Amino acid sequence: MPTTLADIAEKAGVSISTVSRVLNGKAEKYRISRVKRELIRNMAEELGYRPNYLARGLRLSKSNTLGLIAPDISNPFFASIIKRVQSIAYKMGYSLFVCNTDENVDLEVEQINLLYENRVAGLIAMPVGQKYDHFVEWQERKLPLVLLDRCFDEFNAHSVVVDNYTGAYEAVEHLISYGHERIGMIQGLPGTFTNNERLRGYRDALKAHGLPVDDSLIVGSDFREMNGYIETKLLLDRENPPTAIFATSDLITLGVLKALDEEKLSIPHDISVLTFDDFDFAPYLRCPLTAVWQPKDMMGEMAVKLLRGQLQLDGQEPHRILLKTHLRIRESVARVGSKRTKSGR
Q1: What is the mean pLDDT of the chain?
Q2: Which residues are within 8 A (CB) of 78 and not within 5 positions of it... i.e. 6 or more apart?
Q3: Which among 130, 194, 199, 278 counts the fewest CB atoms within 10 Å?
Q4: Cα torsion for 221, 158, 275, 216, to the nearest 10°?
Q5: Do 252 and 306 share a domain, yes or no?
Q6: At what angle do helices 34-46 and 5-12 cross, to 10 degrees?
Q7: Gap between the Cα atoms of 175 and 273, Å rounded
Q8: What does each C-alpha distance from 221 to 143, 192, 242 come to in angstroms?
Q9: Do both 187 and 262 map to the same domain?
């Protein structure tokens, strides 16, 4: 049976109102001594007390639940961020209502309406990224909103993103420095902020080094494994296949690896691979992958803190936080014409 304020009051030898004031941060206002505060908090911890945030929210006509929507919760990248958001939110006294949109804008709209009907205090959105009218409506309701990972240049909202452009630019530049000129890019969902910036970085890196941009080497339609698998098969089947593949997400990379394994091709001896998203097992593969690392934990934590800031102080001017990526050089890139030299050696 859950511990109540009455249980703590009886154990500490004080009134229920005194317990309530201490646990709700009002001890100084009511001049409750430090000794008594410490006693009450110790008793609460000893008895395993957990506040009923739902009941409190109903009494105050506001919720202590945050909403979060993600394009694909099976994607390790999003799953990792969700875990961090939940952990930070919990420490701040919030519960989390998570919705999966399956990269579908219509479903995203439905999920946002569901969260609104459930009176969440605020919304962290990792959007599909192709439309934003429904987020404008959310913002017009004066409800806190933070866009995470994907945002919109035309929509002014609090957001946390990584520097996708620089990350992609440095990745392609690294491949070029090893002599690669035919670099296949397997992109994610076209038209989204994340994909557009990575594509722009890819193009600009080639141009900066005097290399032509071959649009036929830019392939793909979403951030999922099957996309990586199919497009790798098609790239390899060409008369003049690329010498390197730049995979723009962790799931795309899994598809690339599956296709290369089926074709009995070795990384980096037969083809070089560089990935955007440094998933946890990338360093431990038969050939450790060179990858663009993203600060996933920081992204999740910053999003929760931005949202809490809006909850505590209305009228904050929306701003975008841009976090740096880092190119982690391992062994999956070989010099063109070499069967032995690996990146990082």
Answers
A1: 91
A2: 70, 71, 72, 126, 149
A3: 130
A4: 40
A5: no
A6: 120
A7: 9
A8: 33, 11, 19
A9: yes
Q: What are the structure tokens assigned to 176, written together?
A: 């070029």
Proportion of the chain above pLDDT 70, given as a percent = 94
Distance CA 290, CA 174 (A): 10
Please count the structural domains in the chain. 3
Same-domain check for residues 149 and 243: no
- Domain shared by 274 and 206, yes or no: yes
CB 323 within 8 A of CB 160: yes
**Which tokens belong to 51?**
């506040």
The one-letter amino acid at 187: Q
What CATH number is attached to the domain comprising 44? 1.10.260
In this structure, what token pair is assigned to residue 4? 């109540």
- Show the domain range for 36: 5-51
- Are 99 and 9 found together in one domain? no
Residue 343 lies in a domain: no
Q: Does residue 166 have a pLDDT over 50?
A: yes
pTM metric for this prediction: 0.80
Residues 190 and 262 in one domain: yes
Tokens describing residue 60: 């105050």
The DSSP code sequence of 77-98 is HHHHHHHHHHHHHHHTT-EEEE
56-to-24, 30, 273, 309, 315 alpha-carbon distances in Å: 11, 20, 52, 20, 25
Backbone CA torsion sign across 248, 251, 253, 255: negative
The answer as to whether 330 is a domain residue is no
CA atoms of 169 and 334, how far apart (whole Å): 18
